[in-house]
Amino acid sequence: MSRVTDWTSLASLEPTIALGPLDGRYRGAVAPLVDHLSEPALNRMRLHVEVEWFIHLCETRAVPGARALTADEVALLRGIPAGFDADGIAEHADFERVTVHDVKAIEYVIKARIKGTSLEPLSELVHFACTSEDINNLSYALMVKGAVQDVWLPAASALVDDVADLARKAKATPMLSRTHGQTATPTTLGKEFAVLAHRLGRQLRRVEGQEYLGKINGATGTFGAHTAAVPATDWIEVSRTFVEGLGLTWNPLTTQIESHDWQAELYADVARFGRILHNLATDVWTYVSLGYFAQAAVKGAIGSSAMPHKINPIRFENAEANLEISAALFDTLGATLVTSRLQRDLTDSSSQRNIGTAFGHSLLAIDNVRRGLKALTVNEAALAADLDASWEVLAEPIQSAMRAAAVAGVEGMENPYERLKELTRGQQIDSAAIQAFVGGLELPAETSARLAALTPGTYVGLAEKLVDDFLL
After folding, report:
1. Are 107 and 164 in the same domain?
2. Catalytic residue among 289, 304, 400, 431, which?
3. Can you give the residue range of the structural domain that contains 272?
4. Are 410 and 422 part of one and the same domain?
5. Is residue 438 within a helix (H) or strand (E), and if so which, with residue range?
6. pLDDT for 315-330, tens place per residue?
7. Catalytic entry in 180, 305, 309, 350
8. Model confidence at 354: pLDDT above 60
9. Angle at 305 between CA 304 and CA 310, to 5 degrees
10. C-alpha angle 191/196/198, rounded to 5°?
């Protein structure tokens, strides 16, 4: 057997091989995030923020000598981030190799693009009075906002719609509940999915209402360089209008960094959405194992290399794993980003480069759950068989009716719970046993008839109405 060191180096192959699954095996499912949360997307957004700051300084005449820009000049500037492509990525990398500073390289890219144009005399407005974090915090806010609103929320919303559709279709399909894994008061399959859709939808509304904060106020948040250079300008107003003009919420009080509290809030909500979705995945997995759902057989697919009959609920298992990874990353980001030593340290810089990975695993899980749900068919026969084998669940409504009768003054209703417990606990009883017990009670005729007609399959309370009335 050859030694590992004798093998071909996979790291040397072209095209390059991805180290992680999101950029390899699962690239197709997460590719839309690349435009928002990749390293080139970060540099493109930095270009955008720098260019817009340049334009804003000119529009507000914040610096003596700044002037109104022509439409062509504005187009030239905005064309820099808009046209950021493979050549732009390489150009930025060339500058960064020299500067060993990614944001300074952005400044040099812009200055190189406007060299020899009418904008060159204004070139020192590029990155004027800025610290790198002025550019970074705004870039990340815009990137995350775009990723959430353009990619994650549409996918998550479509998933919630899928769950809600299943809830409505199965709202009247009776199902045996299992509390603590044991037979319990019946419900409907649709009502249980309505619960999940309702929970997921509530988290979506929190994410939809998220604020995205930004700041541009210098090296320690004091506008020190601004006021030293141009004391007559109202820099607070220039900062506010710039940040709000980008579509962000202005944060007036910061250190060198924007405090990232909004990120922690957002990631907690997205992680919580994922944990609820994880609950859905484990429930569906269990329903499949109980035979409540049949799974579509995909032509040519193999469920087991040894057992030909297998159709495994792999979409839900894949989702579980990815949701756990995503939640762990979001939890770490939320915990790390809210702390910065004194006025600045760089822990956030490395941490934030993993935002895309966290959203990627979440998006992959959403995709898997949606695909898994589409392959399910409700097995009503299995649901009905389970109900028909569980007549003991009617102990609850019978003892409750006896309690009500006792309160109304009906004789012979003593110890209803204890009597039903003796009849049913640890016992497997059938319809005849229930009928005999109800028949032996001297209940009012209407109550007796109602209980005699009750079956496990009809004992579902207001489940259907709850779906109709409260599922948005």
Report:
1. no
2. 304
3. 133-380
4. yes
5. helix 431-439
6. 999 999 999 999 999 9
7. 180
8. yes
9. 20
10. 90
Asked if 201 and 168 sit in the same domain, the reply is yes
Domains contained in the chain, number: 3
The strand pairing partners of 157, in sequence order, are: none
Q: Look at residue 9 and tell me if it is in a domain.
A: no
Contact 129, 226 (CB under 8 A): yes
Burial (CB count <10 Å: 0-12, 13-18, 19+), residue 280:
buried
Prediction pTM value = 0.94
- Domain presence at residue 26: no
Beta bridge partners of 187: 175
Contact between 246 and 142 (Cβ < 8 Å): yes
Q: What's the CATH code of the domain at 99?
A: 1.10.275.10
21 occurs within a structural domain: no
Same structural domain, 362 and 259: yes
Q: Which 8-state DSSP code applies to residue 19? A: S
* CA-closest candidate to residue 262, choices 132, 130, 135, 148: 148
Contact 467, 168 (CB under 8 A): yes
1 occurs within a structural domain: no
Rounded average pLDDT over 182-187:
96
Q: What is the mean pLDDT of residues 356-384?
A: 97
Active site residue 180: yes
> pLDDT tens across 189-227, in order?
999 999 999 999 999 999 999 999 999 999 999 999 999
pLDDT (mean) for 345-372: 95
Distance CA 87, CA 89 (A): 5
